[in-house]
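User: Hi! I'm working on a homework problem where we have to compare a predicted structure to a textbook description. Could you give me the structure for the chain below?
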Amino acid sequence: FLPALTEAIAVMAIAMILFQFNWLTGLLLGCIVGAESPAVIVPGMLRLKRWGWGVAKGIPDVILTGSALSDVLILLLFSLLINILTQGQGTAQFGWLPLQVIGQVIVGTGLGYGAARLLLWTLVRWRWTQNPLQEGIVAAMLALALVVFAQTWPYFSGYLAVMALGFFVVEQDAPVARRLRQAFNHLWVIAEIILFVLMGASVQLGILAQILIPGVVLLTLGLLLGRTVGWWLSTLGSNWTWKERLFLLPGNSAKATVQAAIGAIPLSLGIDGGEIMLAIAALSILITAPLGAWAIQIFAPRLLSQDPVDPTKVVMESRTVLLVIIDDTATAVPVLTQAADLARRCNGEVIVLEGAIATKSTTAPVKPLVKKMLLDIQHQVVVSNTGEAEASPHALANVIPVFIEKHKVTEIIMSQSTHQMLQSTAPSSGFMTVPTLLVNTAISATAESQ
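Assistant: Happy to help. Predicted structure tokens:
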């Protein structure tokens, strides 16, 4: 959390010079600017982990963890400053800040734990919902209640309580957390649009034009001085090289969603300088969000080493390709049915290899059947044109490894009869290295006859 804190302090000092803020309102602006955007940083760091940039020393994980902790601290400090400034007590109450921080952390974490238990009882034990979208709506209402309650009872941080709610749900019931994450991904698509539209509608263009140059100076110095000092202190004594330390600046400087969420709060509460704070928040999004996303991809290959990727710690993007082998029209329907079901579940592509054993006269009616059963699935049909003399199990066993290598096949689907012929003809064929799904066509044929 040091980089965000040092940036907030640097912004406070600069705002006192450029905008004649007092140190309380300057620090409030520093909290708005110093927060980091998960919407930009998290996808960028996950992409670096998939590519292997800096994973040996855990640099993407450090940035992700530091960003989460920084936002918790900054939002907690922001809520304390809001309470002090709106209550009109000025600096008199600021001497109690350490005790207030400790108290709000304890109470907020406790309320977050209680809310997580209540949410899990509602969703799992009492089963008040029927689908993930309803679960997401219930969780969103509970989180909103925490934030609203914090406004009327300012002895805890509503933002910290909501974060603690999410942490405890993940720890206590991972399947529910996964479903909530999917539901909030859908809700966030709409909420993000509303959030940025409302923020843009609140910005006064005249104020933005007046503070454009001072605002750019404030953001630049805050990043180059405050955040750089914070990262240098955070990595002091580590085994990181100077290039790796330098990457922390472009890799952790993007501002977006947090600024959009809290940038208009001081103005709505009538705090002095609220118009300038909102304009600075909007300016920080316009400048740092695209630059931060661009800088992560540009500077990572230049400043970080590419290391082997541990597939158990990242979500690997893989392409599923199913090779379907059809030897005659009698086995085509059950084999294609199984292939279509599997392809829809994994969003895979299907390659149909037909006519490799049977004669060419039997392959003609299979093509319209494939088109009908795989209508909504990306697929292609490959017909064996090696001639009737070579249309044998031995020829098919020689063709399959070529298709596996050419199309990067991940799984083979065929009937049990076809598999038995291949096993008897070429037991050591290369297709055995790829997972193979066997379809019992005899059962399907019996069911159809009945």
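For your comparison, note the following. The longest strand covers residues 321-326. The chain has 19 helices and five strands. Good luck with the assignment!
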